[in-house]
Amino acid sequence: MTLSASVAAVGRGFKTFAGDVAEGFFEITHNGLALVGIVVVVLAALLGARPDLRHQGEQQLTEWLTARKIAAMGITPELGAIERATAANPRDLPREQANVALWISKKYRVAPEPVAALVAEAYEVGRDTKLDPTLILAVMAIESSFNPFAQSPVGAQGLMQVMTQIHSDKYQHFGGLYAAFDPKSNLRVGVKILQEYIGRTGSVEGGLKWYVGAANLPSDGGYASKVLAEHARLSQVAKGKAIPLNDNTPALRAATTPEPAAPASPAPIKVAALS
């Protein structure tokens, strides 16, 4: 056999080998894809017949995607955190409460959503304790300017600036002393204390004097006047009156002076008797 014939024979052999490899690869790929298709069909039928397996698969996929997202963001979110958030949409509140929430938000430069939740809570607690909710909100305004983490040099804490150590017993039903910084817990404890003081002294002014810790002092330093002035403004805001945000005397007079056509002055605040 000549050299050229040998080269030609090798070429034909290589070509045949390459063809066999390509044909085998095609068969394997074709059969593999067919197998994948069969598996997909079987899985789809199985998941359709077993909703519990489908739910489990969806949950695992969600967890995997969440883990990938957490890794990309570099933070660890809590999916249930929204359930603990003290916030609400002011537009979902009754008109009176929405008026108060939006006015407080603007005056004290706090977000309207958490303020809306506090306003709704104040109205609910006010109904239970027979205290005007705008009085409750006025105490919060003067005490903490709606800062739930406020703390005074003498240890008063939270929205209502409750002396946590002195009134520790009242926090036991809310989980302990750290509940002083939970807005709704602090509000409820503060209102209970205020209600007791008003009942003990027989007047809102007297109750406020005790609340600020001036029970045995000749004067409360103008504390009750400040709270009642803000209470008057909030009462008018709740009725839809346009009250300026700044604390000036003309605005206060306008807020507290009855309209000429009004048949009677506003009803006094009702105080529930102590148990």
Task: Give keywords.
275 residues; mainly alpha; two-stranded antiparallel ribbon; Lysozyme; elongated; 10 helices; disordered C terminus; 2 domains
Could you characterize what this model shows?
By secondary structure, this protein is mainly α. The chain has two domains: 3-73; 90-256, Lysozyme, CATH 1.10.530.10. Helices cover 61% and strands 1% of the residues. The chain is built from ten helices and two strands; from the N terminus they run αααααββααααα. A two-stranded antiparallel sheet has the order 1-2. Helix 1 (3-49) crosses helix 2 (51-73) and helix 8 packs across helix 9. It is elongated. The termini are far apart.
Task: Please give the structural blueprint.
Layout: H1 3-49, H2 51-73, H3 95-108, H4 112-129, H5 133-144, E1 156-157, E2 162-163, H6 168-171, H7 183-201, H8 204-211, H9 223-238, H10 249-256
Antiparallel strand pairs: 1-2
Assess the beta-strand content as a share of residues: under 5%
Strand order of the largest sheet: 1-2
Order of secondary-structure elements: HHHHHEEHHHHH
C-alpha termini separation: 121 Å
Fraction of residues in helix: 55-70%
How many E strands? Answer: 2
Q: Domains counted in the coordinates: how many?
A: 2
What overall form do the CA principal axes indicate? elongated
**Rounded radius of gyration (Å):** 36 Å
Helix-strand makeup class:
mainly alpha
> Which runs of at least 5 residues are low in confidence (pLDDT < 50)?
249-275
